[in-house]
From TrEMBL:
This is Glycoside hydrolase family 2 TIM barrel-domain containing protein. Belongs to the glycosyl hydrolase 2 family. GO terms for molecular function: hydrolase activity. Residues 639-697 form the DUF4982 domain. It comes from the Bacteria.
Length: 818
């Protein structure tokens, strides 16, 4: 079928009623999808959503577009595909109701034929709303791609090509191509389905054909069993892919007859195995999951899932040592899945954050009983041909998992997934605390009152959460919910890992959500226990909303209201602050510590605790990490005390200042893979040298920035696509003339874009700010800022940056048509 982007030519704005929405208001703006209708609204301390959504408000929005439908389409089947509309989407064509979708992350298709006016303009309007329905920043609107799809009455069904690889080794792979064909005509048709499989070089490696007869108004499937010799298998280190070209033609036509329909399907050949002795095996090789939980927002762009933003995030996560992502807590976008396929990132795709019991007043639980099957179908259909997807999660911290009746919901969900796709595994991210909500009041210091938010409760309990999660009470109450799964997902309950191998010897465990600072002990448990498949940290990438989850507060600043009764921080807190990588894509010190613990980093890494806060009493949450920066440029007096951590897997680390030895200490005295030094700040060159068995294994150097200041501006790529899927990310840093980062001399920077592009987003990794992503100015954070530039057509784009006391600097990007 003919498929094209439907992303351009929209207007969007606030909505009131269907009557008012039918006419564009004065606040409507031209937009290109994907788009987030909330990101540019005014944040404030008094908004009803509060810290959950980063102090962004909710709202009711409409999107409108006019499009022509040629007369030639009268005999065609016309569909619109929406990959995600948040939330409670309602679609109208020519002001007639066409479709509804409550779930903001589910892909759905609309058959337009009954509502179209051929040979003249047609209108489409999409309404969306968001209000007290999310525990994190959701954004709102048409936040994922849209497509116009046109085909003949006899055609390959939408998502009608499904490919499995039931057998594969180095010599031969069996590839089964199942093709569903639809006949919307009034008479019987006999068609021919032909598929050829091409490798990365375009060489045909297998092909087959079969006839299929369809009665009027029916569909039928043709199944081709093909064989690929010496296959290039897909895995995390070698993400080899093939393309299946499937052609539908009239069986009665000659061999050169014109194709009625054609689909190109990219897939990978790989096998999955699971058992307690070997854990997870991909192509026969055991793989431990070095996992990152990620939310769906793309930082500077809000909820807009522009393909390049999704791809860049996966690139950075992979480079940081992760080999798997968990889509918390909703299905991953198609763009992100495509990137995971290309780059070799495994995916745990998650369906729901709530079933029948709500976590927010107007969340998806209101629609779950009626819509859950269709939403599971949408997730599985979307994922089926993506080799990166190895596991489906049916939920996250679901209240029902601790009751017998609740476990029947888990059974329904798990069996529905298996009915749709029996080639992958099923898990559920079970939190022992959430599973027994009736026990919680007495658990919190024996009181009948306490934190009502789960994150606040976990903070209040501290290390007790592990003890409670491993209790006999939780074991008994969650046994049935775990029994319906292939893999037991466990949130914040690593104390279960070893005992469960005895109590439940057939149980396989996955740490579906864990504290970032515990990775040293967690990874030891993963490495030493074959039945423990891996670890997913909360979180790999920082996100908007749940503001303050990973914060550090200094108590002499005065008590904060939320510190006493909850975990979330007060306005203008913006992000959770718990990601290994901040919302701009900059790796924070925790990322380098994790890479060291994983055994993937040989070079030491220096993380300096902010000397201006040395010795101050702190409040930190279980998701916090040290308030440290990899810098030796500080605005404090020489001689000020400073704590220096060096992350290393070596035996010892020596610290030098201007080549003069300061101290040599053993690694692990403070914490595994950390050598801690108490020193005094003196500008100069700080060097950490790592030693194993007395032999140097690597060194890291930090240099203080000089007084001269200049802007370093660079685009991530010099050439991008001139379409609605691409972006240029332009980094802005404050350097001295020698290229040293001046992290202590933040400035307000102004960014101007000329040429065929717009400034799509501008910001930093600062967790507390009132600055807007849609502004053309922002204040650097630790010497850095990031701009996202979106092309509007082909040509040369200039990104000019200015800051007080610095010569202006420019980055040039060329947007080219495919």
């Amino acid at each position: 079928m003919f498929r094209q982007s439907f992303n351009r030519g929209w207007t969007a704005g606030p909505a009131e009623t269907s009557f008012a929405s039918a006419v564009a208001g004065e606040n409507d703006q031209e937009v290109t999808l994907p788009h987030d209708a909330v990101r540019d609204l005014e944040r404030g301390a008094a908004v009803s959503e509060g810290a959950h959504t980063g102090y962004f408000p909710g709202g009711y929005f409409h999107y409108s577009k006019t499009f022509d439908v040629p007369e030639a389409f009268r005999d065609k089947s016309v569909f619109l595909e929406f990959e995600g509309v948040y939330r409670d989407a309602v679609v109208y064509i020519n002001e007639e109701f066409v479709a509804q979708r409550p779930n903001g992350y589910s892909r759905f298709n609309v058959q337009c034929d009954p509502y179209l006016r051929y040979g003249q303009p047609n209108s489409i309007r999409v309404e969306a709303r968001a209000h007290l329905d999310s525990r994190w920043y959701s954004g709102a609107g048409i936040h994922r791609d849209t497509h116009l799809i046109v085909g003949d009455p006899v055609h390959i069904a939408l998502d009608g090509v499904r490919i499995t690889t039931p057998q594969a080794d180095d010599e031969l792979a069996v590839v089964v191509v199942a093709v569903t064909v639809v006949n919307e005509e009034r008479f019987t048709r006999t068609m021919r389905v032909s598929t050829n499989i091409a490798d990365a070089d375009g060489t045909t490696v297998a092909e087959g054909t079969a006839p299929v007869t369809l009665l009027p108004g029916t569909s039928a499937s043709a199944r081709l069993r093909l064989h690929v010799p010496r296959p290039a298998l897909w895995d995390v280190d070698s993400p080899n892919r093939y393309v299946a070209r499937t052609v539908l033609s009239d069986a009665n036509a000659d061999a050169d007859g014109e194709a009625v329909d054609e689909e190109h399907t990219t897939f990978g050949i790989r096998t999955l195995q699971l058992d307690p002795a070997h854990g997870l095996r991909i192509n026969g090789r055991t793989v431990k999951l070095r996992g990152a939980c990620i939310h769906h927002d793309t930082g500077l762009l809000g909820a807009a899932a522009i393909s390049r933003a999704e791809e860049r995030r996966i690139e950075i996560l992979k480079a940081a040592g992760f080999n798997a992502v968990r889509s918390a807590h909703n299905p991953l976008s198609v763009a992100a899945l495509d990137a995971c396929d290309r780059l070799g990132m495994l995916v745990l795709d998650e369906a729901f954050d709530a079933w029948t019991k709500p976590k927010r007043p107007f969340d998806y639980s209101l629609a779950f009983p009626e819509w859950w099957e269709r939403d599971v179908e949408a997730m599985v259909t979307k994922d089926f041909n993506h080799p990166s997807v190895i596991m489906y999660s049916i939920g996250n911290e679901i209240f029902e998992t601790g009751s017998p009746v609740g476990s029947t919901w888990g059974r329904r969900l798990a069996e529905k997934v298996r009915e749709l796709d029996d080639t992958r595994f099923v898990t559920n991210a079970v939190n022992g605390l959430v599973a027994v909500p009736d026990e919680l009041p007495s658990l919190v210091v024996g009181s009948t009152e306490g934190p009502t938010d789960i994150n606040s409760l976990i903070t209040a309990l501290g290390e007790k959460i592990n003890e409670f999660s491993a209790s006999q009470l939780v074991s008994e109450r969650t046994e049935e919910s775990h029994a319906v799964l292939d893999v037991s997902g466990i949130n914040y309950g690593d104390a279960r890992y070893v005992p469960d191998s005895i109590s439940f010897p057939n149980r396989l465990i996955l740490g579906t959500e864990t504290f970032p600072g515990h990775i040293d002990e967690l990874w030891r448990l993963v490495s030493e226990n074959s039945h423990v498949l891996g670890d997913f940290t909360w979180t790999g990438w920082d996100y908007l909303g749940e503001s303050g989850v990973g914060r550090t507060d200094y108590l002499d600043d005065g008590p904060k209201e939320d510190m006493l009764g909850g975990i979330h921080d007060v306005f203008p807190a913006l992000t959770a602050g718990c990601g290994d990588i901040d919302i701009t894509g900059h790796r924070r010190p925790m990322s380098y510590y994790r890479e060291t613990v994983f055994g993937l980093r040989e070079q030491p890494y220096i993380a300096v605790h902010r000397p201006e806060s040395h010795g101050r009493a702190m409040f930190q949450t279980p998701w916090s990490w040290a308030d440290a920066v990899s810098s030796w440029s500080w605005d404090v007096e020489a001689g000020s005390p400073v704590t220096v951590d060096v992350y290393s897997s070596a035996d010892e680390v020596e610290l030098l200042l201007d080549s003069a030895p300061l101290e040599r200490v053993k690694v692990g005295g403070h914490k595994a893979c950390i050598a801690r030094f108490e020193s005094a700040y003196q500008p100069g060159e700080l060097t950490a040298v790592a030693y194993r068995a007395g032999v140097e294994t690597g060194r890291c150097v930090l240099r203080s920035a000089g007084a001269d200041l200049r802007l370093a501006v660079a685009a991530d790529r010099s050439e991008i696509g001139a379409d609605d899927k691409d972006l240029a990310y332009v980094s802005v840093e404050l350097h001295d003339s020698a290229g040293n980062l001046a992290s202590h001399r933040d400035r307000q920077v102004r960014v101007d874009v000329t040429g065929p592009a717009v400034l799509a987003g501008l910001g930093t990794g600062r967790t507390h700010t009132e600055e807007r992503f849609d502004a053309d100015t922002c204040t650097t954070f630790d010497g850095r800022a990031m701009a996202a530039v979106r092309p509007t057509g082909p040509g040369t784009i200039h990104v000019r940056v200015r800051a007080e006391g610095c010569p202006e600097a420019t980055a040039t990007v060329h947007a080219v048509e495919a």
